[in-house]
Amino acid sequence: MNPARLAFRVLRLDGRARTSTILTAVGVAIATGLVLLLVSLPFATKARAERSGWQEIDYDAKGSAMLIEHGSDYTGDKEITRIDVASTVDNIALPPGVPRFPRPGEVLVSPALFERMHALPASQLADRFPGKIAGTLDDRALKYPDQMVALVGHAPDEMPADAYQVPGFQTADNAGVDPLLGLLSGVGVVVLIVPSLVLVASSSRLTAARRERRLAALRLAGATPGQVTGIVAAETGIAAAAGALLGLAVSPLLQRLATFVPWDGGTWLPSDFALPAALTVALVLAMPLLVLAAAVLGLRRVVRNPVGAVSAHTPKPLRAWRLLALPVAGGFFTYAVSSDSPSTTMVLFGLLLVVGSAVVVGPWITYAVGRVFTRLWRNPSGLLAGRRLLDDPRGAYRASAGVVLAVFIGSMALVLLPSFSGMAGGGGTFRDSVMEVSASPERAGEITAQANDRLARYGQQSRAFEVGEADLTSVNGSHAYALVLPCAQAPALLRIEVSCASGPAVYSTRNLSGYRVGGVPFAPGVPMKSLRPLDSDATLPAIIDPGALPPGVVPEDAYVAASTAGSDPETVRTALTVGAESVYSRDVHLAVQQNELADLRRVTVIGLVAAAVLAGCSAAIATAGSVLDRRRTFGALMAAGTPVRVLSRALRAEAALPALAATIGAGVAGMLVGLGLFGLSGGEAGVVLTPWLLAPVVLGAGVAVLAASVCTPALNRVRAEPLADE
Predict the structure, then answer these.
(1) How deeply is 142 buried, as exposed, middle or buried, from its count of CB atoms within 10 A (0-12, 13-18, 19+)?
(2) pTM for the structure as a whole
(3) How many angstroms separate the Cα of 332 from the Cα of each of 326, 360, 685?
(4) b/e sequence 505-542, b meaning 16+ C-beta within 10 Å
């Protein structure tokens, strides 16, 4: 008996077997495609880092062939990476995508920055890069296709004194994986592949009862356990192998679609998602092997007791020890996230245990719901649903397994996203309308004069001011800092309210008696006044009029600040730009935070939609398979006069009520896991819990009921077919 030939004969003669095989292949294809895409994400971030590694400074490198300074600039809410360089030798090794080393007075720009420079007036962008554009960088030198990069050439004596001396551009050896997206891809593999495998299991159950009877008959006719296992392996292997190859074939399409999803400022190159050939082969082979292993393990009853399989004896009731799986998995996950140095592998393994515990606990919950049905309900549909849940809780839970996992993912996301949003804000002590650049006290005056000259030339009413920063030390050794500027300028620049004295004074949110500035006490009689921060983002303890500084004390650091009120913000930014020093403003700080949150929301929505679709499909297929598995029972009930609507209500009840009970538990578990994952972020803000946490439970129950609606067409098909077919 050739197992492969027999499997093809079954597929040729049995329409339901063909349907089950096709759906199984589709499920395996989805799982394979998702695995290949999710596993490729860390490789994609590393490919990005390898391309853009030259834009960073290798602080550990020893050499003096080149001077380099790195900074960030912005146009609107788009970041510009600026690298100022000067060569001290004749030849510098160039990274891929950089056509040549810029000479003094030359600038190499990326195509996106080139277009932006020509779309805006020179005072809003191009004047920040003195010199002529000598060439463009291609995609091999960019982190993402639309990245804005400027490589500015200087003579060695034009570089700042604090520029770094390096032997050349940093190589790709130091490139690493984006830790956040690496973690998200691991979470995605755990929480999306399980629903995909549930879809595969639901598809294979469409002909489970008929297959068991066929295999049991073969065993009773003399087939060995090995022969029966070979037949099932051949039947399942055809679908699994075809699905894995189909998933491999569609993975380039999924990767192409992924290139349009922005992350960390931009999109991707198609080549970013390339996986090593050995890993691709391993993943493509692993998916069919998992499906085959599950199918072979499901043969235990037929192999050991073919008579029991034919007579469909009622299985033994489930034991309450199954409930221990969830606290054990939860305890391991809690240990993984609360350790001093959490390991990503341990956290993901703990998450996998929590997700897997649902498979153990879910059938017992289904069994418990069935006991409630049979004890409290007395209408026909309720009793029929209760008996089904008691007789086959594993099969009944299968219909809601995908929905439960989708609810778990949704609850976890609705804890993390509002909590991350609650961490947003801040941005320092300067007002929203103020831009400032950090400078040394020696250069602050020069930068201020240059900025004011540019602002006047551009016709802007804004003016730049020098702001010092001094260290305050108390008698007991505690430290604070103070900004040094005339009090009259402070309300326009800082997030404070203050009433200025008629002469030099010190203004503070605390009592500064006994404090020293720069190690020197304040002169006797210097007035001490109070100031009030406008909000919690203003963390400034004190401001000091320059005339109130002790003789000989100078600020340790300095800023050059200008308010954009009444002026064009981009022009003010251009006026303040000096070399690679970054111009900071609170609106950019908040925009960066919102872009990061948008990345998380986008990835979460994509994951939730995928999980919901997989859950709905698996629930619908499992419900249809449940009807087809019990064709004899339903056929006999309908032949005895039971209305189809009663059977439909029973099927909807047996699908919806266990799903509701399980989804409530999944919602709670997802919330607790979300709390654990949020703790890994190290955020000082508290967790934000919103009423939207109930949405996944409500939607999950709705999806289960909607998926159960396929039972009526399935029952009508049973009624239309003669029972003799069975």
Answers:
(1) buried
(2) 0.79
(3) 10, 16, 25
(4) bbbbbeebeebbbeeeebeeebebbebebeeeebebbb
Distances (CA, A) of 355 to 200, 248, 500, 669: 17, 26, 62, 9
- E strand or H helix at 263: none
The answer to whether the CB of 386 falls within 8 A of the CB of 370 is yes
Sequence-ordered list of residues with C-beta below 8 angstroms from that of 681, at least 6 positions apart, any chain = 420, 423
> What is the pLDDT confidence band of residue 101, given thresholds at 50, 70 and 90?
very high
The answer to whether 544 and 501 have CB atoms below 8 angstroms apart is no
Task: Give the CA distances from residue 272 to residues 44, 183, 282, 321, in Å, rounded to whole numbers and listed in that order.
Answer: 4, 18, 20, 47
Domain residue ranges in the chain:
1-54+174-313, 57-169, 323-427+589-726, 434-588
Q: What are 562's strand-pairing partners?
A: 435, 464
User: How far, in Å, CA of 529 to CA of 509, rounded?
Assistant: 9
CA-to-CA dists, residue 110 to 86, 115, 148, 618, angstroms: 19, 9, 6, 47
CA 651 – CA 629 distance, rounded (Å):
13
User: Could you give phi then psi for residue 82, rounded to 5 degrees?
Assistant: -120, 130
3-state helix, strand, coil in the chain (%, to 5): 60, 15, 25
Per DSSP, what are the bridge partners of residue 532?
497
Task: Indicate the pairing of strand 542-544 with strand 506-508.
Answer: antiparallel
Better-scored residue on pLDDT, 684 or 522: 522
Write out the DSSP string of 150-203.
EEEE--GGGS-TTPEEESSS--GGG----HHHHHHHHHHHHHHHHHHHHHHHHH
Integer CA distances (angstroms), 123 to 82, 457, 546, 586, 588, in order: 17, 10, 33, 21, 19
pLDDT band at 185 (very low <50, low <70, confident <90, very high): confident
Q: Return d(Cα 107, Cα 124) in angstroms, integer.
A: 17
Average the pLDDT over each of 134-143, 205-214, 223-232, 450-459 and give the range with the smallest value.
205-214
CA 724 to chain centre: 54
Task: Tell whether the model's pLDDT for residue 67 goes beyond 90.
Answer: yes
* Residue 26: HSE in the Cβ half-sphere, 13 Å Cα cutoff: 13
Using DSSP, state whether 310 is helix, strand or coil. helix
* Amino acid in position 354: V
Using N-to-C axis directions, what is the helix angle for 225-258 and 15-52, rounded to 10°?
A: 40
